[in-house]
Amino acid sequence: MNWEPWTGCYKASEGCTNCYFYGPYGKRYGQNTIQKTDEFDWPIRRNAKGEYNIKGNKILATCFATDFFLPEADEWRKAVWAVIKERTDIEFLILTKRIDRFPVSLPSDWGTGYDNVNIGCTVENQELADYRLPLFLSYPIKRRFIACAPLLEPIDLMPYLHGVEHVTVGGESGREARECDFEWVLNIREQCVKANKTFWFKNTGSLFKREGIVEKINPFKQTAKSKEFGINILNGQKLF
Ligand code: SF4
């Protein structure tokens, strides 16, 4: 289940180049305009009986169609942190390409972090891994994962894996997608095995290279195809 308290985004780094915000959807809906949605306080809205509209014991993927740490959302984020604090029965999964903005608008009672917040730092290449991950590990966050998506080259995550629970890897989708090489995916998986971390190959991307052969993969088949390899290490972990 997703919760998008605001909409709109713009490029932060290499991995954003072919983000669908820049494609036909962006043109149609004006996705570069950052604006609050009508779901802004959705997790704490109640029905006529006074019960929350969203039941507890859920994972809520938060800001997966925008970025939680956009500067334009600095003020709004204060209210959203309060929503997150109230719903201790929901795990909020936040994925960002702007982890360096994490300290901005952090609640005063954040301390070592809220238990129900799991933050994913996206790194698409080695340069960004080496910039973002030391920052990511230095912040007070209780639960962390790394998302190599879109994976654009081989990445050495070993220096950082000690501080995270999980790694997700995925290729880039779309007509202009850049290649994702299965060797890079397997290499990251191997690092996770060594570091005893869970691993999820979430999709192949549209241009998937394996044993030197590049194949175009239909967007609707990319997740099923990645699953076919049977390389996920999930240890019963629930994914969104
Ligand atoms: S940060 Fe995410 S949502 Fe924003 S442009 Fe980049 S890929 Fe798209």
Helices and strands in order:
Elements: E1 2-3, E2 6-7, H1 24-29, E3 35-36, E4 58-62, H2 74-86, E5 90-96, E6 117-122, H3 126-138, E7 143-148, E8 166-170, E9 180-181, H4 182-195, E10 198-203, E11 207-210, E12 213-216, H5 222-228
Parallel strand pairs: 1-4, 4-5, 5-6, 6-7, 7-8, 8-10, 9-11
Antiparallel strand pairs: 2-3, 11-12
Organism: Clostridium boliviensis
Pfam family, one: DUF5131
Protein name: DUF5131 family protein
Account of the protein in words:
The chain is α/β, with parallel strands linked by helices and 240 residues long. The chain folds into two domains: 1-119; 123-240, no CATH class. Helix content is 22%, strand content 21%. The protein is built from five helices and twelve strands. It has helices at 24-29, 74-86, 126-138, 182-195, 222-228; strands at 2-3, 6-7, 35-36, 58-62, 90-96, 117-122, 143-148, 166-170, 180-181, 198-203, 207-210, 213-216. The strands form three sheets. It has a seven-stranded parallel sheet. Strand 6 (117-122), helix 3 and strand 7 (143-148) form a beta-alpha-beta unit. The protein is globular, with a radius of gyration of 18 Å. The model has no long low-confidence stretch (mean pLDDT 93). Iron/sulfur cluster binds next to loops.
